[in-house]
Amino acid sequence: MSVTLEVQDHAARVVFSHPPVNALPVSVLRQLERRLREAAAREEVKIIVLASEGRTFCAGASFDELLRLHTPEEAVEFFMGFARVILAMRDAPQPVIVRVQGKTVGGGTGIVAAGDFAVAPADAAFKLSELSIGIGPYVIAPPIIRKTGIAFFQQMSMQPWKWFTAFEAAKRGLLTHVTENLKRADELIDTIIQYYKDYDAEAVRRLKAEIWQDTRDWDRLFREQAAKSAALLLRRETKAMLEKLRKR
């Protein structure tokens, strides 16, 4: 379990790992937000790459952690973990590239949607599985809807069993680039980095602020959305479903 930050040649790379499938507990989410804000605060950084280790980009929330939550305050704080990562990506004056590999579920899809760039190989796949465990993708709804529109969010959220391909995700705006394989994805990310090394940081900052200006109410909105998820999570029915799925 780790979140690392490496800065080299004006590019910051924030990499998280929580084996086996990067299902994230609140401790990793807090570290991830901290590292992103640390990268954003460094004057020499002109672009940020957010990546994970392993075959899966992010399996969403940790079931073990969800089962340990017993109060509304604890549950809201957990779901705000994903919200704060998304806000850190929004608040960074630099563009954030999300490097996606393998499968991405739930909260991980929200993180992908918050990227200014999202690059994935053709074999990547996405799913919003929240309904299948008795909750809903409320916290991550704002960034996904902002990127894809309500129609694709409806398709994803109301079909929690369905994997959506990288090409479907790109067609709807969730991904900015789909490549032949992961090696090609890394090469494309390096190319984007090379361009941004030469761009004026203030011009980029102002452009990003312009692009994200419609999200000024997200700090309030995310807490309201987290409370919706928390209320559903704490029901006996939801806990039973989680326990059953965890034992599979």
Q: Could you please describe the fold and organization of this structure?
A:
With 248 residues, the protein is of the alpha/beta class. The chain has a single domain (2-183), classed as 2-enoyl-CoA Hydratase, Chain A, domain 1. Helix content is 50%, strand content 16%. The chain is built from 11 helices and 9 strands. Strands 1-2-3-4-6-9 form a 6-stranded mixed β-sheet, sandwiched between helices. A 3-stranded mixed β-sheet has the order 5-7-8. A hairpin with a 2-residue loop joins strand 1 (2-8) and strand 2. Helix 1 packs parallel to helix 3 (72-91). The two termini are 23 Å apart. 44% of the residues are buried. The model has no long low-confidence stretch (mean pLDDT 96).
Report the principal-axis shape: globular
What class, by secondary structure content? Answer: alpha/beta
Count of the domains: 1
Q: Give the SSE order as H and E letters.
A: EEHEHHEEHEEHHEHEHHHH
Largest sheet: 6 strands, mixed
Strand content: 15-25%
- State the share of residues found in helices, binned by percent: 40-55%
| Unreliable residue runs | none
CATH architecture: Alpha-Beta Complex
The fourth-level CATH homologous superfamily is 2-enoyl-CoA Hydratase, Chain A, domain 1
CATH topology: 2-enoyl-CoA Hydratase, Chain A, domain 1
What is the CA–CA distance across the termini? 23 Å
Quickly count the helices: 11
Number of E-type strands = 9
What Rg, in angstroms, do the CA atoms define? 17 Å
Q: What's the mean pLDDT score? A: 96
CATH class: Alpha Beta
Strand order of the largest sheet: 1-2-3-4-6-9
